[in-house]
Amino acid sequence: MVRKLVPSSTLTFSIRMKQLILSVVLFVALSLLATQAPADEYHLGAAGPVPQALAADVQALLAEDGYRVTGEDGTRCEFWLVKSPAQKTGFKPGLRVKYPFEPGVLVGVLRVGEPGEFADFRDQVILPGLYTLRYGQQPQDGNHVGTSQQADFLLALPAQEDKSTDKLTDTDELNAISADAAGSSHPAIFSLLPPEAEKPDQPKLTHDPDHDFWILQTTADDKRPALRLVVAGIGEE
Questions:
Q1: C-alpha dihedral sign at 100, 102, 108, 111
Q2: Helix or strand run (H / E) with residue 137
Q3: pTM for the predicted model, two decimal places
Q4: CB of 144 closer than 8 Å to CB of 96
Q5: How far apart are CA 237 and CA 235, in angstroms?
Q6: Tens place of pLDDT for every residue, the chain, 237 residues?
Q7: Which of 91, 97, 155, 162 has its CB 3.0 to 4.6 Å from that of 132, i.e. a possible disulfide?
Q8: How far apart are CA 223 and CA 87, in angstroms?
Q9: Residue 79's closest CA among 224, 200, 177?
Q10: 203 in Cβ contact with 159 (< 8 Å)
Q11: Which alpha helices (DSSP H) does the chain contain, by range?
């Protein structure tokens, strides 16, 4: 029986092709793992006492059970919610509006901690400090088409510029003061996602890998609805 010899050039080419295919497979696998794994990991804990640097009237409205979100670099942010925020009578959620608040109503307080950079839903840097959180709705105009399916947002306002507990009825003023929090011409906003049908007994922090959102889910009672607030994540432009 005569055995055919394979030319060395053909053998070398075959080995190189196998190596190339293996490299491509490994590259694709690693890329998939990289896209599935969150870039950062966050955890939920209890916040400290209500900040004393706030206006006395604002302090009096806040619940003691605040929320602290921490990452690898330490505290990312803390939240204290109003014990009994003003709500619309007879409110029924629609397709875009899920929360029973009127624009300009005080909902809570945000404290951004050191170190690191904290960004809002538009990837605007929010510097360390205290901010009030007021409810707002995304305008239905050409500048916001496709940015979010829901209209519900919280706007951050520098606490030293917002010391009243009254509703801010002037939308332009609300947006202008909030823009100061981001140092830009656009308000500092945080998206409110639709509340879950089944309300949790305990607050929780969940991760949405499809959008890379970290979502704070608060608890509810007779005076305060549960919120689902995106505390880390950037919306579509």
A1: positive
A2: strand 129-137
A3: 0.80
A4: no
A5: 6
A6: 555 555 555 545 555 655 555 454 444 444 444 444 445 799 999 999 999 999 999 999 999 999 999 988 888 899 999 999 999 999 999 999 999 999 999 999 999 987 667 999 999 999 999 999 999 998 765 444 444 578 999 999 999 999 999 999 999 999 999 999 999 999 999 999 998 888 788 999 999 999 999 999 999 888 999 999 999 999 975
A7: 162
A8: 9
A9: 224
A10: no
A11: 8-36, 56-61, 171-182
- Pull the structure tokens for residue 133: 């959180």
CA–CA distance, 190 with 156 (Å, rounded to integer): 8
The region, left, alpha or beta by phi > 0 then psi within -120 to 50, assigned to residue 129 is left
Place of tokens 């075959």: 14
The residues, any chain, with a CB within 8 Å of residue 188's CB and separated by 6 or more, are: 120, 124, 126, 131, 155, 156, 157, 178, 179, 181, 182
What phi and psi, each to the nearest 5 degrees, are found at residue 219? -90, 170
Tell me if 159 sits within 8 A of 58, measured CB to CB.
yes
Q: Locate 219 and state its tokens.
A: 């608890």
